[in-house]
Request: fold
Amino acid sequence: MSKDVGMPTPYERPDRATTAPAGDQRAARTLHRPVEGRIIGGVCAGLALHLGLNVRLVRLVFVLLALPGAGLVAYLFLWALTPQSVQGVIEGSSGRVPVDPARPEGPGRSVTDAAAAVGGASDDQQRSATRVLLLGGVLLLAGLVVVAQNAGLNLRLGFLIPLLVVAVGAVIAWSQLDDAQRGRWLGGSSGTGRFSAARLAFGSLLALTGLVILTTRGRSLAAIWDIGLASLAVLAGVVLIAAPWGLRLWSELRHEQAERARATERADIAAHLHDSVLQTLALIQRRADDPSAVAQLARAQERELRSWLYAGPAGSDATLAAAVAEVAHEVEDLHGIPIDLVVTGDQPLDSGGQALVRAVRESLLNAVRHGQPPVSVYLEIGPDGVEAFVRDHGPGFEVEEVPTDRLGVRQSILGRMERHGGAARVRRLEQVTEVSLSLPAPRAPSPTTEPQPPAEASHATP
Amino acid sequence: MQPREPRVDVVLVDDHRMFRSGVRAEIGDAVNIVGEAPTVDAAVEVIAETRPAVVLLDVHLPGGSGNGGVDVIHGCRGLETASGQPVRFLALSVSDAAEDVIAVIRAGARGYVTKTISANDLTSAIRRVADGDAVFSPRLAGFVLDAFGAAAGEIAEVDEELDRLSAREREVMRLIARGYQYKEVAKELFISVKTVETHVSSVLRKLQLSSRHELTAWAMGRRLL
Reply:
């Protein structure tokens, strides 16, 4: 999926001091699990945010409820059903979730690392302290269980331990889900993918082992083998039946994603058309009584739209062809007379090229002021040099007849070209005036700076 | 405009009704507009029915297999007018995208002009195409010079070479790119207008037959002004 080029969504990090309230403002209605300040899945933090309660209180309630098992189930359900959020922005709520390149953490880092990077240092310390406490509590519980067992109480350890293994494995595997989600969302890099996969595999293996132990307690090896085979058969059957559904869902998901990308693109185009074409059309309607203004507006808009549609590579402004095009458009806008521009070849803009561009501009100004439309420019950029022809359909002028002020203008054309080793000449045909400018290739200064008569067959000799 | 010649039968193919009526108003007196069509399929039908001398063809059209004007030319292959001449196509477009222009020319159009062309020029272009000649706008001439590497100095040793322009063809193309009319080109090169037309037709033939890879690669890769 493409990134949202041209449609920036403002994305500001809320102040650290106001993280919780800021999150509140934006996503108070829907329950979500903030990445910031979470310990396991962020369920308690999210719930506290949602209900406006103290996080510690919620956590305490959950821990107490977890002892008989109900809290654990509730936690898992909430974890599975509520969306994750980073800094108050919920994943999946809109197709366009901004990517902040300044975010330091990679997608595959461990939960602690990610949380530490987001939260402040004190936050982090507090959280790791809580973790130590949690771990301690679990160990204490384990110790108590062992003591109770030794004291003669039957706690059915053979049942409890595999269950615990399953739970730990599931948590490891599932927490991967969150990170994978976030990784995709952050435009993830593949460098840590292997680590994530290993974690997922380890978690699944752990859970599976626990399940196997649980179901095969006290049976012989042969019985286990039979059970294993039967389970495999069932599993294969389930996969066989579920596969088409899975595939269908997957393809639908892809389709939807493509659709969303298209919609974004369409919105982009609509925005551009609105800003350019529609505005110009409105302007044209308002100035309908002024044909020349309308023509000029239409021409400028056409050019703008064309350059948008057939945009060249970025940074092409530094080429000679682009510079001449710019000059032609400028003169066109200034005088409202259309200029037809044809260019072949291109090369980077050097000092000689700049002189040529200025001379072209001067010639064009001359043509639109004193000549008659249509005015056309032909620019040929080849290995042997550059040639430019500016042509109009005016009565033309003889060099001798030209008044001194216009001679000055032409002098600036001629003089400029000659200073750069090129040449300029004015030709007068019937009803046509043509200024031809030529510039030899810079690295091989041609022996003749004399301009070739522009249309002689002598060009034919290679 | 030129009353001594019989009026040419023309079919207008363009998906914009406003543009069609505009062209009709501008050149309706000079040529004989026998039909109009807004889509590829309608165009093929109308052209097969009326068999005009010239079809004014928009490059971008709805319908067909999605290739616009190219589809129309393919769909009308082999059609002849009542007098036994092939039906000829003149491409007319607002698009300056090289790939569009080259595609429609290579499909068989006898020329390419932009929609900003004046009514007089359009009429004479139609007449020229009806006579079997080629019509190149300055921009198309620029494309051709670029695509054949002629601007970079590549010149054919013999005229028959398909992948390069001959020296004379290059000269003609350069003058057309500079905005010269055929008769101005003729005067400039001290040749007859007929010879200019021969050169232009030969360039058109090369454009249609050449397998020069730059022709397509260049047109696809290069985004022109």
Chain B has two domains: 1-132, 136-225. The CA atoms of residues 12 and 56 of chain B lie 5 Å apart.
